Amino acid sequence: MDPKDFRQQAHQMVDMLADYFEEVREGEKGSVLNWQPPENAVAKWQEEIDSHEKDPTELFKGILRDAIHVHHPQFAGHQLSPIAPLAATASLLTDFLNNGTGIYEMGAPGSMMEFAVIRKVAQAMGLPDEAEGFLTSGGTLANLTALLAARSFKASSNVWKEGNETELAIMVSEQAHYSIDRAVRIMGWGEGGIIKVPADEKFRMNTELLEQSFAKAKAAGKHVVAVVGSACSTATGSFDDLEAIADFCEQYDLWFHVDGAHGGALCFSKKYQHKLNGIHRAHSVIMDFHKMLLTPVLTTAVIFRDKELSFHTFSQKADYLFNKTAEKEWFNLALRTFECTKPSLAIPVYTLLKTYGEDLFDEFVTLLCDNGQTFAGLIHNHPDFELAYQPECNILCFRFVKKEMDANSLDELNRRIRTAIVEAGDFYIVQTQLNGRQWFRTTLGSPFTNEKHLQSLLEEIKKFGDQL
Ligand SMILES: Cc1ncc(COP(=O)(O)O)c(C=O)c1O
């Protein structure tokens, strides 16, 4: 608790991070990750915790050395945005203040900024002026929060008070993120509460099968309360036809929720926002800032098309007293969020928007999606690779092929190449299964990635493919 120490340590930290950033963004020196088996890593940290040192510099250097470098142009793994340096600076402020935002008095700037940030996203998505929401800790929690609101509005009994009586269910593409499945199970609806609509050849919900799936669910005694559109799906980055889902929800008076954790960010890209056509008709939408919008984990927007809907999440429509209290205390966000204490999530996003405007997000998201197209072109033109589908954003799946190999051996080879890549550490990519086969999965998140890096990734994969 000594300001002198803080000044000195924090200055040193900023210098160290600036040097790190300079080096990592070039992508020449060092690698994307310094792979170690988890057993070794845990043993090291367990041992080091007892070797006390007054100066934390070596500790910080060790963390940098062992971390994965998301700014690196050869990072193309899971959906994590590199942070804008200014957002990191703002995070230092929020961490130091340690204000909560559940209760207005506990963190006035952070909690009130949420309204301004949500308004920007709602406008970019074309939601009505009455739309309102808040920030929460990640897409998983955000999906649960929105689906709890759907339950509150569409269930015929008062589940909040009486528990589940009817067999409630939602409908969603088989390609949806697992957090939807998890939310349904947390709500106590079991496996039968999630009705998976088959996907088409582009891994989008086959909306022509909605009617059939709905009729089957009803015949089995299910009360379907909502349909969830994925914008986009996690594995392939495919965008469901949101207009078709909205029409269906209107026809049967169902809640329409859009999981835009990843692709919701395209609302800021003039070039790619058409992928979200129909999102403005949703009752609820979620969008992660930390996947494509340069902000720290976790920063997720939950938006309701009408602010009134947001007051019912943790109550039931008949619960007059609670709703009235919540509406009167609109400024105490904990009445509407899962969290009680919540960090000042809005401050880094607000700082970026105030400093650079939405143009920053437009340029950045457009660049990442353009990179997806460039990479798809390289893969398509390479005789040793197969593209799983034409990508719609910055997520794409592909694999190494050898004509003489059977399908199972090819799967095994692609799996082994991926392990070799991670262990070598010069690139980071992940993997997925599509239609029972093995594919590499990449999310192009770094603004420093260019065609040369993507070409080298293919060469590296081919090198391992030929060796293994
Ligand atoms: C479509 C989709 N929804 C939800 C999530 C979960 O978001 P979070 O990791 O922020 O909890 C993800 C994460 O990958 C996702 O891709």
CATH topology of the largest domain: Aspartate Aminotransferase, domain 2
Tell me the number of strands. 11
Low-confidence stretches: none
- Structural class of the secondary structure composition? alpha/beta
- Give the CATH superfamily of the largest domain: Type I PLP-dependent aspartate aminotransferase-like (Major domain)
Main sheet: strands, sense, barrel: 7 strands, mixed
**Radius of gyration of CA atoms, rounded to a whole number:** 23 Å
Give the end-to-end Cα distance, rounded to a whole number of Å.
Answer: 55 Å
Q: Which compounds are bound in this model?
A: pyridoxal-5'-phosphate
- Corresponding CATH architecture of the largest domain: 3-Layer(aba) Sandwich
The H-and-E topology, N to C, reads as: HHHHHEHHEHEHEHEEHEHHHHEEHEEH
Number of helices: 17
What is the typical, i.e. mean, pLDDT?
Answer: 95
The number of domains: 2
Strand sequence of the main sheet, in spatial order?
1-7-6-5-4-2-3
Tell me the fraction of residues in β-strands, as a range: 5-15%
Using the coordinates above, name the CATH class of the largest domain: Alpha Beta
Helix content: 40-55%
